[in-house]
User: Which sequence fits this backbone?
């Protein structure tokens, strides 16, 4: 005689579902414990990158020939090999390299040589993944029940996705970094106002703010620290501010840079201008939060229908359904 299958609800084995949910919950707890116990200090890598940038600026100032400057910038052997390969294929364009380098800077990657790796990835990824998917679909017959249109769509979609994957990865990193910088910008401007009113110079103010905000907003602290280094080493202070605007894809940063350049050029009060900018950015952040709050009812409708209401019905009607099934 077969053992009882256990209580069921709407034809679903309750014990099996509960076991599966318990396994998923246990896995989530293990992942959370692993993430909590393997936290690394994000400032160590950033400090190392800033020190490397400082050494590059020093070397760029004291270098007397273009050969020594090339020796400073061409340290990455892999990037050199990729550059040589792309140059032999005549696939390098100056505007393409500059755009890739600017995106890398906006993503927080300091090495400009990796721009050639990104361009090389656009070339290699479609070839590799396209070859695999073509062999699998048309030679190995992975999807024999599919028609010609579906197979062609799969191959074309794989090629397009493989070509766009480096840009998608960079865009994702830029978006996350820009969001983190946007959150800390009003606090940074308030600290800059305090430093300016205390009599600190601009480069000292940037250095002080980077130290104060380094743990709360490491991305913004990193950029301010690099700007402070460039203000101390570059002969043209305007270039340091323009480099800050190029490294961060944010309109608010461009407004701050324009204000800094104007105060350096015309001698206008820095504290009052930064105070106005800080108030505008705080109002903008409040308006953005209110906009997200206004969208919540529409966004929560689908999760409410799919996840919350079924669980609520199971909790309310589950015991009654189990009793009725045992009575009959």
Assistant:
């Amino acid at each position: 005689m077969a053992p009882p299958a256990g209580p069921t609800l709407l034809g679903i084995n309750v014990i099996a579902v509960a076991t599966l949910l318990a396994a998923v919950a246990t896995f989530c707890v293990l992942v959370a414990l692993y993430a909590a116990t393997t936290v690394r200090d994000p400032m160590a890598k950033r400090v190392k990158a800033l020190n490397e940038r400082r050494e590059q600026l020093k070397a760029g100032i004291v270098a007397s020939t273009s050969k020594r400057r090339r020796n400073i910038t061409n340290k990455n052997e892999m990037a050199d090999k990729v550059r040589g390969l792309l140059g032999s294929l005549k696939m390098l364009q100056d505007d393409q390299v500059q755009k890739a380098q600017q995106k890398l800077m906006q993503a927080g990657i300091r090495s400009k040589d990796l721009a050639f790796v990104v361009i090389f990835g656009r070339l290699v990824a479609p070839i590799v993944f396209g070859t695999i998917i073509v062999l699998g679909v048309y030679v190995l017959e992975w999807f024999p029940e599919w028609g010609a249109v579906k197979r062609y769509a799969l191959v074309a979609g794989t090629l397009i996705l493989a070509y766009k994957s480096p840009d998608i990865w960079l865009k994702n990193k830029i978006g996350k970094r820009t969001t983190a910088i946007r959150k800390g910008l009003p606090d940074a401007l308030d600290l800059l106002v305090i430093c300016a009113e205390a009599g600190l110079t601009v480069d000292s103010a940037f250095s002080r703010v980077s130290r104060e905000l380094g743990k709360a907003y490491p991305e913004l602290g990193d950029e301010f620290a690099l700007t402070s280094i460039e203000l101390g080493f570059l002969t043209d202070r305007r270039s340091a501010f323009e480099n800050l605007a190029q490294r961060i894809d944010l309109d608010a940063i461009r407004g701050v840079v324009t204000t800094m350049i104007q105060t350096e050029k015309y001698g206008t009060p820095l504290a009052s201008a930064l105070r106005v900018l800080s108030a505008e950015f705080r109002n903008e952040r409040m308006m953005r939060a209110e906009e997200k709050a206004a969208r919540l009812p529409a966004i929560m409708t689908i999760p409410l229908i799919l996840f919350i209401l079924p669980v609520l019905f199971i909790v309310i009607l589950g015991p009654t359904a189990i009793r009725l099934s045992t009575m009959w």
